[in-house]
Amino acid sequence: MTTFPATALPFDAEEILARLMRWSACESPTFDAAAVNRMMDMAARDLALLGARIDRIPGRMGLGDCVRARFPHPAGDAAPGILVLAHLDTVHPVGTLTKLPIRREGNKCYGPGIQDMKGGTVLAVEAMRQILAAGMATHLPVTFLLTSDEEIGSPSTRDIIEAEASRNRFVLVPEPARPDGGVVTGRYAIARFNLKTTGRPSHAGARLAEGRSALREMGRQSVAVEDMTTEDCPVSVGVIHGGQWVNCVSTTCEAESLSMAKRQEDLDAGVQKMLALRSNANDVTLEVTRGVTRPVWEPDAKGMALYDQARAIANAIGFDINPQSAGGGSDGNFTGAMGVTTLDGLGVQGALAHTLEEHVLVDSLVPRAKLLAGLMTTLA
Question: Model pTM?
Fold first, then answer.
């Protein structure tokens, strides 16, 4: 059996967990730029202490900054290398710690964003820490790109992600592992939509019949949207905002919808259905616009060769990984669709991401960190 020296590095689960708990305790919901930037400060400091050169990329669209960390390498900055691509924004609003406190219960450790995806990002940092401490060399330069808006489709960072990926040979994405510990070699296409209904106001008590409710029509449209769901292209409505006064018939209502498909042609058909929606109510208009989109990322020969290398490393550590296409999107959609060799799902094992029971499995920390270290030191 082939041996991989990096898998013998002295990783310690308790040390990794301590850092992960500290990161998870720094709440960083996407829409709170100041909170995300506090998390970026913490990550940038940890990476700078390892000797990385830190570049802070200012946020836009009212969202947080990005951090790029380049590690010194004899080949220089211009040489194509390894990009570790991760996001530090979460779906949990500030204050979630009161409902989802950082706590360990046996083999599980709970916390906001601890699985998606601070866990995997910490593992990648720890892999680099151990490589450097051992005086080991990587064949290729290693760059970390930490982004701020993945949870909303990366509208402000896609250009940065694609620009950085184009300068590298490999992209490693430490998103959470699949439920069975497998990794991701492809992801479904995803499209988001913004819906807006506009009605006519009136006093809800004195002149109810004179009004035309935007909320009521959005309710109808929400049912119609979810009824579009097929096995090949599920559709859902996840956000609705409307009305301002309970004693007024609502004038406007806005909603956000999402659809995904394994094949681009199925998503394209779903997009056309969404854009063809029309209002069924008199004097109420409906506007549907397409939001951010993640392209389909299909497995290819280069990606599967990278998976084979990862599997050999995992087998040497003592576990196996299966290749899977995943329904949830990630920034790997962009790099994989570009044709840059990408492997995703390299992060921690755990469950219930985006809920108040989000957790990681402590016994997955060391094996998964070793896997990342093995890839960083053998890719060439």
Answer: 0.92
